[in-house]
Design goal:
By secondary structure, the protein is mostly helical.
């Protein structure tokens, strides 16, 4: 029976019983790296995480397995209060798939590691840079107690990297901008202003990011909710 006392080997063995080659093939069609994947849905991995409970040391060991599902389980069972910036940096060195990056970003936001955002944004590696903007998006949505000033302080970072045409970066930059704009009325105006500015840029990536954000941030349903 899976539980708090289960070691990494036991958890990986349990994950292997849930594997599906068909599911792994389906994941590949969504841009998920499946070279070391068992083909288990995130919902099923979360179910295992609920049984295994939080265990920070074990999470570090699971991450080193280099198996997609074990790494996601590591992220779901790590202890945010114990996660250090150095541990987060070490994990970032291994980022190679957008879904793992986005899950890690949620953990990093929960752990309060905002200091890593400018560092990750400045990193030239595609998935490390994506992590920065996934963290901004996550903070804008989930960090209810943060000041609007703190959230808006990330707009210059978004603008600075709006010309990065790599698929997983440009989508994350767009996601971060839209998330800030949808946070509340105070954040909406500055985010929409930046979106309009980017929409007029000669750079086609910045223009795409801006136009898409303008379209979403100008929607009647959103404007009604923000009133």
């Amino acid at each position: 029976m899976i539980g708090r006392s289960s070691d990494p080997a036991e958890l990986i063995a349990h994950l292997e019983t849930l594997s599906s080659e068909e599911n792994a093939a389906g994941m590949a069609r969504f841009g998920i790296v499946t070279d070391r994947a068992l083909g288990i849905s995130n919902a099923d991995i979360r179910a295992v995480a609920r049984l295994a409970k939080r265990n920070h040391l074990r999470a570090m060991q699971l991450w080193r397995s280099n198996i997609r599902e074990a790494r996601l389980l590591a992220l779901y069972t790590a202890e945010p209060k114990r996660l250090t910036p150095e541990e987060a940096r070490n994990w970032a060195h291994d980022f190679d798939s957008w879904e793992v990056v986005d899950c890690a970003a949620d953990l990093f936001v929960e752990a309060g590691l905002d200091e890593l955002i400018p560092e990750f944004a400045a990193d030239e590696r595609e998935f490390v840079r994506r992590a920065a903007f996934a963290m901004i998006a996550g903070a804008a949505v989930h960090r209810k107690g943060a000041t609007d000033t703190a959230i808006l302080s990330w707009l210059p970072v978004i603008e600075a990297h709006s010309g990065d045409s790599r698929n997983f970066v440009r989508k994350a930059v767009n996601w971060a901008l839209r998330s800030i704009g949808k946070r509340n009325r105070a954040c909406h105006g500055p985010a929409l202003g930046l979106a309009k500015l980017l929409a007029e840029r000669p750079d086609k990536t910045a223009r795409w990011i801006g136009r898409d954000a303008v379209r979403e941030l100008s929607g009647e349903r959103l404007l009604a909710r923000l009133k």
